[in-house]
Amino acid sequence: MNTDEAIRKRRSVRKFQTKAIPHEDLLKILAAGIEAPSGKNRQPWRFVVVRGNGKKEMVEILKKGVEAEEDEEWKKWAMNSVNIMNDAPVSVLVFNKYGDRPWKEQSIEQRFQELVDVQSVGAAIENMALAATALGIGSLWICDVFIAYDELCAWGGQDNQLVAALTLGYSADDSTFRYRKNIDEFVKWRD
Description:
The protein is α+β, with helices and mostly antiparallel strands and 191 residues long. It has 6 helices and 4 strands, in the order H-H-E-H-H-E-H-E-H-E. The chain has one domain (12-169): NADH Oxidase, CATH 3.40.109.10.
């Protein structure tokens, strides 16, 4: 599958088969992540791969975070994400090695560097999603992990910034194409 095909075929998969992902394929997906571009070649990404019994522990942490949340709308969406993560054979917690807790005060220089690093981590996540697609594996980029931010950082043994999670597994539905607006709605040309 070429790059253009992977981009066009990638879908946000929310229903997974129970079929395990071969370890070699997981390594290929992670390797694609670390091939992403990064500002000043800082390579800020760190990954915690969660499967098996680790998945059960992670899901319990997330459920406690949902229970403690007061915003009913966020609780609903977050619980949906928790259920997806429970069903997916693998979740990858993605961290920014150089980032700090989002609520910590920073200088303007620190904030700018963190923005660069988070963009680099986002590129790594997209590379992994595309690599998964090329291998016939579905994925879903999830940020509802913030509902148990400190707890997941501690559980994952990471003293840095949690950016997102990427669930991985073989799709159990057709994950049909979602409408995309016309390119003219996003682009302004200055010739």
